[in-house]
Design a protein that fits this description.
Distance between the termini: 29 Å
Oligomer: single chain
Strand order of the largest sheet: 2-1-3-4-9-8-7-5-6
Number of helices: 7
Radius of gyration: 17 Å
Structural class: alpha/beta
Order of helices and strands: EHEEHEHEEEEEHHHH
Shape: globular
Strand content: 15-25%
Length: about 250
């Protein structure tokens, strides 16, 4: 069973969850602001998703401190970790790096480039040198000590990194157009969209995601399958699931 730390209802693991279920792997989802955090040692790995808050908002949201401590303890014990957007920022903060507001929000379906370090990584070696991903964030972070940078974008240098068995991805490749529309109902997201792309940008952004959602979610499942198999070290629970997972391992 994997532990999913979710911060808002409209940011589930999405395509990552689809891959988990295809493998026959159970997940335990917690909304971190609603109940005490579970014992992380009971899980084979941890997935932390996005949210509208900042990783530095402990004064406003005291539960963030407990979540970052959980991540720090788990990662120091070599527990596999996969963080998306806020999840990546929380990982960076838990590893002692600064998380802060960037010069401008990065919003849109935009190019991301892998770094030379990605070619030797068991997960990101399966990634194209450039791909499109949904960006919808205003915060960024420093690269934690001992981490390897795996991807960057024109606007923000830190797009993906790994330290040990812990991965942080600033971008979104796991969601589709329907979830994108739900995000627009979150005031913080709607505000960043309006300030960055204009008051009428939502239909355009949804169409951009819809045009790319098949390739983005396929890449999400491909990378996540590599993480499950090569980093977490588990196998699909059925022959059919195993065959499909291995097909996604085939070189691009």
């Amino acid at each position: 069973t994997l532990l999913v730390l979710q911060h808002i209802a409209c940011e589930p693991p999405a395509a990552y969850e689809d891959e988990l279920r295809a493998w026959g792997i159970e997940l335990h989802r917690v909304m971190v602001d609603e109940l005490p955090l579970p014992e992380w040692r009971d899980y084979a790995g941890i997935i932390a998703m996005g949210g509208p808050m900042g990783a530095y908002d402990e004064d406003r949201l005291p539960w963030l401190a407990a979540e970052k401590q959980l991540i720090a303890d788990a990662v120091s014990a070599d527990t596999p970790f996969w963080g998306a957007c806020l999840g990546a920022q929380l990982l960076a903060a838990a590893l002692g790096a600064a998380v802060f507001a960037g010069p401008a929000a990065e919003v849109g379906v935009l190019p991301v480039q892998t770094t030379p370090a990605a070619a030797a990584d068991p997960v990101f070696s399966e990634c194209p040198r450039e791909f499109r991903a949904l960006q919808w964030h205003g915060d960024t972070f420093e690269l934690p000590d001992g981490a390897a940078l795996l991807a960057r974008s024109e606007a923000y240098e830190q797009q993906a990194f790994v330290r040990g068995r812990a991965y942080g991805l600033q971008f979104h490749i796991e969601i589709d157009a329907a979830l994108t529309a739900e995000w627009a109902d979150v005031p913080a997201y709607a505000d960043s969209l309006r300030r960055t792309l204009g008051a009428d940008a939502l239909p355009w952004l949804i169409s951009e995601v819809r045009a790319r959602e098949r390739e983005m979610t396929a890449l999400a499942r491909r990378l996540f399958a590599r993480w499950l198999g090569e980093v977490v070290g588990i196998e699909p629970r059925s022959a059919e699931a195993n065959a499909k997972a291995k097909a996604r391992y085939a070189p691009l």
